[in-house]
């Protein structure tokens, strides 16, 4: 029974956050150039240790000494695509969980096809927005997310004004965060990296996705209360992730 | 008659800024690695929606669903150069306006030659600094800018302590901004991206360049008043772009 | 007699900082994608003028018009590796000093081998952390740093809670900075870039490394006193580097 069907939120959220800070797991993140810096900083703020090499002939060395992998398709260049082809089988062989973020598949047919091939390689979590889920599922919103979760036997984390986490059977909704997040680049990519960090310490993929999105949304809510706009929002978000207490999550995020 | 010869500034500046926020146009930006994050954030702060893929075999898909293109030659690698070779003809075929930013052509002969070849492909706006204009025109300052505008039938936006926008016949000067901008990387690149965003909603290239540089300079002036140095300047600039009112532009920027 | 053996700190630190601001030297930085933006901003804040092109067929043009070179192996891709192969001989031929930052050599055998090959090409300074020094020297801590300095006839700057600068015979320790620096990505890479900037104006490699690490640590200490967490730390660090006075260095950093 996954965490999606047992909503003891304080426990679901607090335990992996505490473990993340105590264990400081290595997470290898294959992501786009715009998202690299803020994703690395989000992981460091939470206590994880990121690496980001995307060279095909060395990426397996980095994956093998990490505890989770993040695969983000934004701005995909041939070198990173080749690295994904090495990293995903390396992670699978070791039983490492991995996250897929199918950035902007609605704008490129070849990228959509690659995302579908990667889904067949069993990511633990697919983290996507509404347009990406619709493109991959052929159905909108929750229905699309549930279809993808069932077809590919993964957890789908569909983020937006309200976030949805579903294993295809049970679904949890999280309300929180801030509209300012749409005005800062790579916030979705950073959220995917954070899902990877939680997967490193929590093997129940529903629990990891919930804890990650709840932590990110809570920090976003705290940051929005302190920021004057999207520029000051990003440093405030990192400060909030660094100092985040489980109690703040329960206060800032509504689970439904 | 271009906007350079009819200086009804409030109208020239206010209308495209309002349209940018209302229409949220997609802008495809081919830029260097240092400039990607801040350029994306500047566009998002103003309301545009950036994409930045530079893979040669997918860039045309992204350009075709965008309303303007930005071509920046900083740190040009072979993959992005190949992408430029796909993106510019795709933009031209669709009648999409594009901006050329010939970063550091004074430091590399091959890059200067590429910039000259691209100028023959009819960018709507060339956005450059003094050293770049001099290298491309063989003449300094306003004379160089006017020569390039006439020779390549484009608008030239020469930025510096005072910005110049010229169509080769009429010239407008803008004074504003802040010397701190020289101490923050990629400010010129971000200004070029902002010109692209204004071109997406304002087809008069003089008007778009004026509105873009005036908005950027006004936000820079506001940010400089709030920042303690170049580190706090960047988030303040993004906050100021996000909240910018046409009235602030008239107050912070002097048109001559 | 190198600066490591004559500890007249105010002079050692103040003179190159003043020269850096007055001369505004160009520094070419071959670094990883995560570190580019913050490294460029750290150099600009201090007064240096960075360039970062890593294309193999143009990098020599940039090196030849620069006064120092920085070679960072983080996220090393084939294009940047080829550029290093052009840039280091170009720098050597011109007598330009260069810094080597062997990022994460403990995680990849091929990268460790490359770092050792580059050490034989005579960098002025090796800037590394404890794990990297141990991997390259086969010995831990100060012993490892001294062995590398003697074997490769370079200055080794080993950074951590306390920084060590050694020429293999004489050693100086600097205590300062902030534990928050471990929670912000690319701080070590930015420190290496700053060493490059000081080498551009101070040819005694011990003196340049000491002045660079002392400046960086002092700015870090000032920033930590103002920041709420790792997000606000980075803009505060850049503001502090911009405004740094020699007197603050003597106050914030302890030399032993």
From TrEMBL, chains A, B, C:
Gene Ontology biological-process annotations: thiamine biosynthetic process; thiamine diphosphate biosynthetic process
Record: residues binding substrate: 52, 186
Needed cofactors: Mg(2+)
UniProt keyword terms in alphabetical order: ATP-binding, Kinase, Magnesium, Metal-binding, Nucleotide-binding, Thiamine biosynthesis, Transferase
Top-level division of the source organism's lineage: Bacteria
Residues involved in ATP binding: 127, 159
Pathway where it operates: Cofactor biosynthesis; thiamine diphosphate biosynthesis; 4-methyl-5-(2-phosphoethyl)-thiazole from 5-(2-hydroxyethyl)-4-methylthiazole: step 1/1
GO molecular function terms listed in the Swiss-Prot or TrEMBL record: ATP binding; hydroxyethylthiazole kinase activity; magnesium ion binding
The keyword Metal-binding is assigned to this record: yes
Record EC number: 2.7.1.50
Catalysed reactions, as listed in the record: 5-(2-hydroxyethyl)-4-methylthiazole + ATP = 4-methyl-5-(2-phosphooxyethyl)-thiazole + ADP + H(+)
HAMAP family xref list: Thz_kinase (MF_00228)
Function: Catalyzes the phosphorylation of the hydroxyl group of 4-methyl-5-beta-hydroxyethylthiazole (THZ).
Family per similarity comment: Belongs to the Thz kinase family.
NCBIfam families to which the protein is assigned, alphabetical: PRK09355.1
Protein's UniProt name: Hydroxyethylthiazole kinase
Organism lineage: Bacteria, Pseudomonadati, Pseudomonadota, Alphaproteobacteria, Geminicoccales
Gene that encodes it: thiM
